[in-house]
Amino acid sequence: MIAQGFSRVIGLGPLSGLSVFALIGIVVWELWKTNTDIRVVRTDSAEDKDNDERFLELNQKVATLLVETRDASRRIAQLQDSILELENTYGAQPISNAPLGAFINEAAKATKESAKKAMLKQIIDDNVALRKKIKLRLVSGGSKQ
Amino acid sequence: MATTFYVGIDLGTSRTSIATSTGKRVSTVTCVGYPKDVISRKRLGKDYLLGEEALENRLALNMIWPLADGVIRDDERSHEATALLLKHIIAEGIPEKQEDDQINVAIGVPAQASIHNKQEIIDVTKDFVDKLLIVSEPFAVSYSIDRFEECLIVDIGAGTTDLCRMHGSIPDVEDQMTLKIAGNYLDQQLTNCILNQYPNVQVTPQIIKRIKEKYGYVSDVTDPVKVTLTELGIPAEYDITEILRECCLKLTSPISESIQDMVGTFDADFQQKLRNNVILAGGGSRLKGIDIAVEKSLVEYGGGDAMCVHDAEYCGSIGALKMCLEMPGNYWEQI
C-alpha cells in the first residue's frame, strides 16, 4: 500500500510494491556509495596535503644536511691544513707536543682580493680613529653621544 | 707556542651568538639573573645565572637585560652583566684556550651606534679580549654571504632594525639606517592587541615571544592560529589569527617604507638593482611571508626581489668571524 502510494506520488505510475522497494533500495545504495566515494576523496586530499607537508619538510632537511655536509668537508680541509702547518712549525718535534687548540683552530688566511683588502683596511682605520676619539673624549671629559 | 683564536660576535638585545675559529657556534639569551635573596642564592649555588638558565629560574632572580635598542644600557649593572655574558660565551666557545693564547674578536653593533655605545663595548671586553674590532652589524651580514655589490641588507633584530645599502665598498653613514621598530616592538603590539580582545587572559613576555616565533606571519593566508592561554589559571583556546597578522604588519610596514626610502635616495641608475637584491636577516626574517610582503611593498616602485638569509641566528657572527680570519695580520697590529 505504502509503496504503491509512494510510486504514485513520485509519478512512477502503477509499479508493483516489490519494484518500488527495489528502486528505493537502488537509490539508497547509490547515495551511500556516493557518500563513501566523497569520504574517500576527502581522505585522499587530506593524505595528499600531509604528503606535501612531509615532502616539504624532508626537502628542508635534505637542504640542511647538504649545508652541514659542505661545512663538515670545509672543516676537514681546514684541519688537514692545520696539521700540515703544525708539522712545518714543530719540525723535528713530535706533533703531539702541540696544544689541542692549535689543531682545531682555523688559521687566519688573509684575503688576497684587493676589494676586500680595501674594505678591511677601512674597518681597521675606522677602529683606530674610534679609539683616538674615545681617548680625546676621556681627556676632555666629553659628552655621551 | 701561543695560538690566536678568532671570534665573531653578534651581541643582540634578545640573543647573543658567537662563531669561533675552532668551528664552534654558541648562542644564548642576552640576560643575566642575580639571586633575589639568600635562599635563592643557596638553592641555585651561584652568584649569577646566564642566558637560558637564568630565564628558567627567573622567579628566584633579579633579571638584567643589559641591552636596549641594540646597545648596552648606560648603567653599571648592565655593563657588568654584558661583561659576564660575553666572557662566559667566549669561554664556552673556546674551552681549549691556554693562558698565553690570544683572542681577537669582531663584534657587530647597530649601524648607527654612537661613539659612547662603542666605547662601552670596548670597556666591557678589555679584560678578556686581546684585540677588538667593532663593525656595523648589517655589514657583517653582507660579509657573511659575500654580497658587496648593489644590495640592501635589512637586519631585523629584537631592539633595532638595521638597513644598509651595499655598493661594492664600505657603506657610508647615509647608506645606513637604524629603526627602533623591531622584534620587541612587535611583542608589545601583540601583547596589547591580545589583551584588548581578551582582557582577562594571562600573558607574559615569554608567552608572547613563543607565540610570535612559532606562528608569526605576514602572508595573506594561513591556517587558523589558535593558542592555549589561561584566564585565572583556566586554560582555553583563543583564536589570534587576525590579531597576529595585524601586529606583524605593524612591524613590516615601517620596514617596507624604510626600504623604499633607502632605494629612493640611491643613485637612480642602480635603484632597480637595489630593489632586486633586498636581503632580510636577523630573527625578524623568520616571520612567515616577510619576503613576499616586502616584494609587494616594492610593486608601486617597479617591483623587486627579497630573500631571507639561510641562517638567521648566526649570519652576523659568522660574517664577523670571516672578517677576523681574512684580516691581514699587520692590520690587527694597528689596534
Can you characterise this structure?
The complex is a heterodimer of chains A (145) and B (335). In chain A, helix 1 packs across helix 2. With 145 residues, chain A is an all-alpha fold. Chain A has four helices and no strands. Chain A folds into two domains: 108 residues, no CATH class; 35 residues. The radius of gyration of chain A is 41 Å and the shape is elongated. The mean pLDDT of chain A is 78. Helix content of chain B is 39%, strand content 24%. Chain B is flat and about 60 Å long. Chain B contains twelve helices and 17 strands. Chain B has a five-stranded mixed sheet. By secondary structure, chain B is an alpha/beta fold. Chain B has two domains: 124 residues, Nucleotidyltransferase, domain 5 (2-Layer Sandwich), CATH 3.30.420; 162 residues, ATPase, nucleotide binding domain (Nucleotidyltransferase, domain 5, 2-Layer Sandwich), CATH 3.30.420. Chains A and B meet through helix 2, helix 3 and helix 4 of A and strand 1, helix 4, strand 10, helix 11 and helix 12 of B.
The CATH class of the largest domain in chain B: Alpha Beta
**What coarse outline of chain A follows from CA principal-axis ratios?**
elongated
What is the beta-strand fraction of chain B? 15-25%
Order of helices and strands of chain A: HHHH
Unreliable stretches of chain A, pLDDT < 50, 5 or more residues?
none
Give the uncertain stretches of chain B in residue-range form. none
Kindly report the oligomeric state of this protein.
heterodimer
Mean pLDDT across the residues of chain B is 93
Structural class of chain B: alpha/beta
Radius of gyration of chain B: 21 Å
